Amino acid sequence: MLEIRPNCEYCDKDLAPDSLEAMICTYECTFCTTCVSDVLENVCPNCGGNFAPRPIRPKIARRPGLSLEYQPASTKRVNTKYQINELQTFSMKTKEIKPEQR
């Protein structure tokens, strides 16, 4: 089950559980759409994968026990350990490779 992390790992922007700006990689590294496009160039700085919009967990349990009420979003903030120059270098080496071939 997704943690639904509360922030962009690069700029630390708040990303509410229902945010349409949250993007995740296959390991659930979480970044905002601006950082994904302008800084990371759709390359996860942690695994080298690509990003997809983060699904939104329902607020209301339309099925028993399945909603934010029963599986709340994480409150633990995560930040990348890489500096901007490291991110740019990594993205430059990886961005031209199609995600399915990385």
TrEMBL record:
> The RING-type domain covers which part of the protein?
8-47
PROSITE patterns, per this entry? Answer: ZF_RING_2 (PS50089)
Domain of life, source organism: Bacteria
- InterPro entries linked: DUF1272, Znf_RING
Protein known as: DUF1272 domain-containing protein
Natural source organism: Marinomonas phaeophyticola
